[in-house]
Amino acid sequence: MTQAPMTDAQALRDSVAQARRWVVKIGSALATNQGVGLNLPAIEGWAEQMVELQNAGRQIVVVTSGAVAEGAARLGWKQRPSALPQLQAAAAIGQMGLVRGWDQAYEKFGKRAAQVLLTHDDLSDRQRYLNSRSTLWTLLELGVFPVINENDTVATEEISLGDNDTLAGLVSNLIEADVLVILTDQEGIMTADPRTDPQARLIEHAPANSPELEAVAGGGGAWGRGGMRTKLRAGRLAARSATTTIIASGHAPDVLRNIAAGRPVGTLLYSKDGKVSARKQWLGGTIRARGSLRLDVGACRALLEQGKSLLAVGVTSVNGEFSRGELVVLEDQSGVEVGRGLVNYSSGECRQIAGLPSDQIESVLGFCREAELIHRDNLLADSRA
Asked: What is the pTM for the complete model shown?
């Protein structure tokens, strides 16, 4: 496992201690009593720590799970439902208790909370994305704690973000957070499953995009949709905005205080690459693409090594149905994603001009909207998450 040298690792911890803007994500297993109602004492404990951090000059956004589990508990259900209408009903019922729990916890320490419900559409539409960011920034400047959850009541499978780990990573991009803290019921990312391997040890720090982390990340629990793999994905999303991620146990006493003090808590994931532009963060965070383009070796090299636009001549095949301006995934000849971007031509038009030089587009289509299939300003290369 590739880790930072110890001196660099401490420097990363120290930078987290100096971070001003935080996103803190609380998982279902922590926010509820393993699916039986809310864990209100724990919520109050985290709120108290966050208030202390805010009083010291930090801004904090909370991404919280637990609405479905709380709703199911209120309905007397013993298992998480699988049917979408039941899930949405449970979320609607549980969201009332979840927000009230956080609001009362902050109110006890003289602070205000604000409920923010987001869907994939809110983050994939550029105008709604910018509006959401402005609202969150305003709440932070007012000293309010935004409490964010996915809007499960209206989200369908088509527009669902999938899990709140992913949502937390996208919110980190959205508000340009300095640090993302993911609190879970595990100590962090381990070298193996500690339930079956007594030699398993904590990975204290690693690059967010390290491929070795995939092998040791596991799935989710009964009441959540995530697992360590989705937390790793969240860390990789956050790394696009140069956000440092810490995955740590929410059961640990004073966990947020210790992180803020620069102590070695949990697994720290850091970005080895520079921060990409806000627009390209948005492109990379738009989860569902409408289709894909398969590229030849030359086109892949132009994108990845030279930062160039995608031309039709480099496309070997077109998959899916999409309109002009929609998001498509770019793949190499092995089907591995090498980027994504907003396409200037529809899928039908792309099929007609694939493999052709730009100066032949007009003769085939009868018009030439753009010389590029995807302009580099609308393209995020190597956006694998």
From this structure: 0.78
